[in-house]
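Changelog note: in this version the structure field was regenerated for every chain. One regenerated record is shown below for reference.
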Amino acid sequence: MNPAKKLPACLVVTGVLLTPVLSSCTSNSSTDEPNRLSIQDSTLAAAEQPVSQRPAPEVHRIGYRVDGQGDPSQNWGDLYLPGGIHQEKSVPLVVLIHGGAWHRSIGAGDFSTFARSLAGRGVAVYNIEYRRVGSGGGWPTTFTDVTAALDHVPQLLRDHPELSGRTEVVGHSAGAQLATWAGTRNTQRPSQITRIPGFKPERIVAISGPLDMTFAANSGDEDLTNVIGGNPTPMAARYKDVDPIQNIDPTIPVAAIHGMADAKVPWQLSQRYVQTAQQAGGQAEFYPMYGDTHGSLITLGSTHYSEVLDLITNHFQC
């Protein structure tokens, strides 16, 4: 039996069309005026009208602005909108940040199946792309691209009235590092890459993430040192800027999911983060998935694939 902690099982928000409730009216025999809805009833009926209706999920590519020179071929996010009938502010939003060792070899398109699986559960998904090592990224561009993409979320909420203010940021592997850091980044100290966030998520879900970057780099993670530009000793300030374990925000809950058979990113990195966050008074939980490797948790049909989706989407009903 898998001892991984579970969130309460809840129904998924799908946006249900409500039947307008009209007040009972009788004719006025003295004036012979027609029956009328009260202002309150009219307002209620208008509020219950759907703002979107689609037979199946739709995907829209949306560009986001960055400071300085951007790259439209990489500075974008695919917004997956779920099928069905939706009232105003009824659909929660998941921001999805792909992994791939911060390298250009893996992109947002490789996470389209995972994004569609989430959208199939009635949530919207903003699957972001960003510049990576080998495609114009690295320090600091990879990190500033991700924060710019997250800071575009308020605009998405304005442009799509079905979206609610309930949001999560979810990342896998390198994307888990980016999600956890960008969602809780420290703005109280000087930094060349940190600016006042335009968006803060309700919750963060980190899947198979190197959440203690200094420990990982000192353990030989060359992909990590490549994106930072060096080892922790000469680059201590950079690690301090983007290492999740050094940028904990106790006010934002974090769920760290990790396969216990992960040979690429040790599960202890998630456990170390959770323990440190808890010691700081944060609401962090560690969810060990026994038998899972680095990529199996996001692979359709794997043993715990549905459980990972549950851990993400069930939160919105609690």
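Spot check on this record: The first strand starts at residue 52 and ends at 54. The radius of gyration is 22 Å.
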